Amino acid sequence: MSKLKVQQPIIHLPAFTEYSISLPDLNALLLKAGIAQIYLWDWTFWYVNLEDWGRVFADVLLNMPKYTTEKFDCENFALLTSARVSSIYQLNTCGVAIGESPFGEHGYNLFVARVDNETKLFILEPQNGMIYPIEQSESYKPRLVFIG
Q1: What 3-state class would DSSP assign to 143?
Q2: Three-class SS of residue 109?
Q3: d(Cα 17, Cα 12) in Å, to the nearest integer?
Q4: Which residues lie below 8 Å from residue 87, measured CB to CB, with a gap of 6+?
Q5: Given pLDDT bands bounded at 50, 70 and 90, which one contains residue 103?
Q6: pLDDT of residue 5
Q7: Whole-prediction pTM value?
Q8: Cα dist. 110→35, 133, 141 in Å?
Q9: How far apart are CA 144 and CA 62, in angstroms?
Q10: Which of 19, 35, 109, 142 is disulfide-compatible with 124, CB 3.0–4.6 A?
Q11: Which residues, at least 6 apart from 117, have a Cβ–Cβ distance to it below 8 Å?
């Protein structure tokens, strides 16, 4: 009888160009956006262009748990999204934001992306996948952000 060799699954991650931003530079970008409380937990932060973020979010937002009031609600979606981005893609610039939204006080994600050779901030609503430039953020106004 022949021996069957079990193959390990191959995980195919998209290839993309990573950019980095230092803690002082990211802090300055967040302050310029008017965010009152900022917690940055690394010295170097890694991010990709906006198109590649779309591919990352298409992956990490699949198969999210069902919304459950007070058990798995807005801030839990934001925390899980940030954790999945970090664990799968090793990108540490998808942070968690708490602040105003069209729904009142809310938890969502804030991320850093490269657009036209500039570093910019965007809001991600992890419950529906919508992305907004922070300056055109449909009433999303982060008050507290932690990234790392």
Answers
A1: strand
A2: strand
A3: 16
A4: none
A5: confident
A6: 57
A7: 0.88
A8: 11, 10, 10
A9: 26
A10: 109
A11: none
The total number of residues shown for the chain amounts to 148
User: Which residue is associated with the tokens 């507290």?
Assistant: 144
Strand 94-100 and strand 37-40: the pairing is: unpaired
Q: How far apart are CA 71 and CA 76, in angstroms?
A: 8
CA 60 vs. chain centroid, Å, equals: 10
pLDDT over 70 at 127, yes or no: yes
Instruction: Write down the mean pLDDT value for the chain.
Output: 90
Token readout for 116 is: 């036209």
pLDDT digits (tens, 9 = 90+) for 48-101: 999 999 999 999 999 887 866 777 678 989 999 999 999 999 999 999 999 999
Residue type at 55 in one-letter notation: R
CA distance 95 to 121: 11
Q: Are 114 and 101 in contact (CB under 8 A)?
A: no
